[in-house]
From TrEMBL:
It comes from the Eukaryota. Belongs to the oxygen-dependent FAD-linked oxidoreductase family. This is FAD-binding PCMH-type domain-containing protein. Residues 1-22 form the signal peptide.
Length: 522
């Protein structure tokens, strides 16, 4: 996910998914399921009995996208162990038709993915510990933890994990979607650094999925989403960390060309120093027609060497928040700007990082077309905020994935450098849902068609081999995908077919695809 200065990634969700509109039909059966769960001793709260309970309020309404808070579960349950999760799954299996959702941090904006109307909401908030191994090589992390909590727990140890870039994001959802980190160029995606998943399957069994046991399931959980079971613990590799340099600089939109040219060059040269990272975000606030660029800088060390950020450093900036700090302080620094209560959506696409003038022309064209569209259409919607984020995906990140045994996304380093694009829209009320949805689709459709037509057959930087008609535009990054997109189907090297077969093997009754939200295999 990218960086938005005013709302730090708050955008809006366009409309409720079908699951959210039909789940309330089974609320009578869900009430019975809630009673059975409560009888096992797992903490169970309901709107009728616990409306003023802060734990209920947080579970039901604390989401980045306020559209999720429009849904009311029959109950929210708070397991404290894999055994309690197993009991919950067994009860759900025995109560036909009861819908459910698993909530980690509540940061996914897609309504019904971590929220449910009339069903059972399984909050992982009591499974949120961070436990470092005695030899400090691994750490056990609960899915309900937020990355800032993980960073804080490890702050004095001299090690960290490949984490999400925003502290308020939950561990569970980001990791199962792949997870892009400031440390990814050094160590791979977040999911590449998981060595074991403790997971409850649809038959209520508790298994460990790693490279030696349940290896197919282990591979599937590395970026394959939430349709395989409920993860109750991630065991992740640790990496040494000391003082780092980073933070946000803001720029006037008049510097757009220089910033985008620097972004293209940085992506080409990313492999020369994988300790560096950037996220480049353009933002337009319709209410006052404010246009800005926000660049988030990161370097794994106290002082970036000459040459790493030189092109960015030469661009005049408005504000500069970069400094030497701890990794925990960096992850924690943006959370004060999180604003809840807005509706928002995120949509994704993938573009090739083309060489030289072609690459610069593509990024500048895309930004200018996005800007013109937003100012033309957005002016009809006061209160809307739009942003687009350029998130470099250099060939060295897939290289780490391959070295780690591969993941569900199936990217090949020989395919070269790409750019994972993220588009955010945020607004205040449900009246804007349809407009936001329509605009988000138009934005991605326009650029996808343009680049495939204009730059057909031109290989991206560091390209070695692969089908240019496919690889340059895939995969769609699940963590940024909107509910009507199909990230699983975009996975390479026959990833979708393999994932579908694994999902059916561990969940032959279809508990997860039929009764919970998420990206599907159909």
């Amino acid at each position: 996910m990218g960086i938005n200065l005013h709302h730090f990634l708050l955008s809006a969700l366009a409309m409720s998914v079908p699951l959210a509109r039909t789940a309330a039909v089974s609320s009578a059966n869900a009430s019975a399921a809630c009673q059975f769960i409560s009888a096992t001793g797992t903490e169970t709260l309901t709107l009728q009995a616990d409306a003023l309970n802060p734990q209920w309020i947080n579970a039901q309404s604390h989401y980045w996208n306020a559209g999720n808070a429009d849904l009311y579960p029959a109950c929210a349950v708070f397991p404290t162990s894999a055994e309690e999760v197993s009991q919950i799954v067994s009860i759900l299996q025995n109560n036909t038709g009861v819908t459910f959702a698993v909530k980690s941090g509540g940061h996914n904006p897609n309504v019904g993915f971590s929220s449910v109307d009339g069903g059972v909401l399984i909050s992982m908030s009591n499974l949120s510990s961070t436990v470092l191994s005695q030899d400090q090589t691994t750490v056990d992390i609960g899915p309900g933890a937020r990355w800032v909590e993980v960073a804080e727990a490890l702050d004095s140890s001299g090690v960290t994990v490949v984490s999400g870039r925003l502290g308020d994001v939950g561990v569970g959802g980001l990791t199962l979607g792949g997870g892009l980190s400031f440390l990814s160029a050094e160590y791979g995606l977040v999911c590449d650094n998981v060595v074991n998943y403790e997971v409850v399957l649809a038959n209520a069994s508790i298994v460990n999925a790693n490279a030696f046991t349940n290896s197919d399931l282990y591979w599937a959980l590395k970026g394959g989403g939430n349709q395989f079971g409920i993860v109750t613990k991630f065991t992740m590799k640790t990496h040494p960390i000391g003082q780092i340099w980073g933070g946000i600089r803001s720029y006037a939109a008049t510097e757009a060309a220089a910033i985008l040219n620097a972004t293209q060059d940085f992506t080409v040269n990313y492999y020369k120093d994988p300790k560096a990272a950037v996220i480049v975000t353009g933002e337009i606030t319709i209410e006052n027609l404010l246009e800005t660029f926000i660049v988030f800088f990161f370097y794994d060390g106290p002082s970036p060497p000459a040459g790493v950020f030189d092109e960015f450093n030469a661009i005049p900036f408005l504000t500069d928040g970069t400094k030497v700090q701890s990794y925990y302080d960096l992850i924690n620094s943006g959370d004060s700007t999180n604003l809840y209560g807005l509706r928002y959506l995120i949509r994704a696409t993938t573009l090739p990082n083309l060489p030289n003038a072609n690459g610069k022309a593509l990024y500048n064209y895309h930004y200018n077309e996005w800007r013109n569209y937003v100012l033309t259409e957005g002016v009809l919607h006061p209160g809307f905020i739009f942003s687009l984020a350029f998130q470099p995906m250099p060939f060295i990140i897939p290289g780490h994935s391959v070295a780690a045994g591969g993941n569900a996304l199936g990217m090949n380093p020989a395919e070269g450098d790409r750019m994972w694009m993220e588009y955010d829209i945020s607004w205040l009320t449900a009246a804007g849902d349809d407009s936001a949805y329509s605009m988000a689709r138009s934005i991605t459709a326009t650029i996808d068609e343009y680049v495939k037509t204009t730059y057909a057959g031109i290989p991206n930087t560091h390209y070695g081999s692969g089908d240019l008609e496919v690889e340059e535009y895939n995969p769609i990054f699940m963590n940024d995908a909107m509910y009507d997109q199909k990230p699983l189907q975009s996975y390479e090297n026959n990833g979708f077919a393999k994932l579908k077969a694994i999902q059916q093997s561990v969940d032959p009754s279809g508990l997860f695809p039929n009764r919970t939200g998420g990206f599907k295999f159909s």
